[in-house]
Write a structure and sequence with these properties.
The protein is mainly beta. It has a single domain, classed as Macroglobulin (MG2) domain (Immunoglobulin-like, Sandwich). Helix content is 12%, strand content 45%. The protein has 1 helix and 9 strands. The strands form 2 sheets. The chain has a 5-stranded mixed beta sheet with strand order 3-9-8-5-6, with no helix packed on it. It starts with a helix and ends with a strand.
Length: 138
């Protein structure tokens, strides 16, 4: 009996000193749409000027005379701002605010940039959300 009381007291002492461990459940996983910013080159498939007949090729190197386009994926229904910088001079070349329609992927094209290295920063609600760099050479 004395041994039983000793074991019981030892158990109660251990529980009272150790307490009960409580691990809160992990926060719920929030799935956000995949957001991506990259540049594309549009190539005419049939020589027409219709955007429906273009093949968009993902690239970050352009030749003189080509028009780089910045494509912003995953921003449907959002208003975004795209700042385009010339990395060689550090100057802002263009700033565009775009409302991305639901279920569409907007893109911004920049003709006549000239040679150099460029960076496009995408801002969502004033916070940098994505960036891409590209170059235009001779």
């Amino acid at each position: 009996m004395r041994k039983f009381i000793s074991i019981t007291m030892l158990f109660l002492l251990g529980v009272s000193l150790g307490g009960c461990a409580y691990y809160p459940p992990p926060p719920p996983t929030i799935i956000t749409p995949s957001r991506e910013v990259f540049t594309i080159r549009s190539k005419a498939l049939d020589g027409t000027d219709s955007r429906n007949h273009y093949l968009n090729v993902r690239t970050n190197q352009f030749r003189a005379g080509e028009t780089p386009c910045v494509l912003v994926k995953g921003y449907s229904g959002e208003t975004i701002t795209v700042d385009l910088y010339n990395l060689d001079t550090g100057k802002l070349r263009a700033q565009n605010t775009v409302s991305a329609p639901q279920s569409q992927i907007p893109y911004l094209c920049y003709p006549s940039l000239g040679n150099g290295s460029f960076k496009a920063d995408v801002f969502l609600h004033g916070v940098l959300s994505g960036t891409t760099t590209f170059g235009v050479s001779r």
